[in-house]
Design a protein that fits this description.
210 residues, alpha+beta, Archease, Possible Chaperone, Chain: A, domain 1, 32% helix, disordered N terminus, metal-binding, calcium, metal ion binding
């Protein structure tokens, strides 16, 4: 796993309040705890068995045609917001959202499991938020080090005790002649990171440095 640290300049109290209000308006909920996450992950594993291909955005298997994410403005950066019936689905959408900000995912031809078109990674954190950070940071590292862009991401295992996440992605190496160049994502941040849950839905908010 690749780890990194990110220093962030502080935002004003008014901006922070505005962001928090925006999150509250969209989700309306309480913060996910490790205990509630463990219960949710049991349900998630059942959903994965029932929906291995992610039909309707379920089961942590997201591609560019299942859009369960949006981009929210945030000063000079951008906030990724992804959601799903469980944490794996929301995290999968989060990774696709990040790649979609850097290029047009409709132009990506996903490979299947080989070194050219597929990647599998395992990340580990010390708690829920650090796991989310490491998950997104590792996918970003694959782009920075290999030029690899995913149009399809699957999160197939999360261990709530060890904060370990196993994920795979399909895509291809970025090619200037084929792919459109969007906005570069420089780093993932912890700033105002939130994981929220209500009524069978998980929402994840992460600010990325662009």
């Amino acid at each position: 796993m690749v780890s990194s640290t990110t220093s962030r300049s502080s935002v004003s109290a008014s901006l922070t309040a505005e962001i928090d209000a925006n999150v509250s308006d969209r989700s309306g909920l309480g913060i996910v705890t490790q205990t509630s996450l463990q219960t949710d992950l049991i349900q998630s594993q059942q959903a994965l068995k029932e929906t291995q291909r992610g039909e309707g955005g379920k089961g942590g298997d997201i591609n560019a045609t299942v859009k369960n994410y949006e981009y929210l403005p945030h000063t000079a950066d951008i906030q990724l917001h992804a959601w799903g019936v469980d944490l794996p689905t929301a995290l999968s959408g989060l990774a696709v959202a990040m790649f979609g900000y850097m290029t047009d995912l409709n132009l990506i031809t996903p490979g299947f499991g080989d070194q050219t078109g597929g990647r599998e990674i395992i990340v580990k954190g010390h708690d829920l938020h650090s796991m989310v950070y490491s998950f997104l940071d590792e996918w970003l590292y694959r782009f920075h080090s290999e030029g690899f862009i995913c149009s399809h991401v699957s999160v197939y295992s999360i261990n709530s005790v060890t904060s370990e996440c196993k994920t795979s992605g399909r895509g291809e190496v970025f090619n200037m002649e084929k792919h459109k160049q969007g906005t570069e994502v420089k780093a993932i941040t912890y700033s105002n990171m939130q994981v929220v849950k209500k009524d069978g839905r998980v929402d994840v908010y992460v600010i990325i440095d662009i």
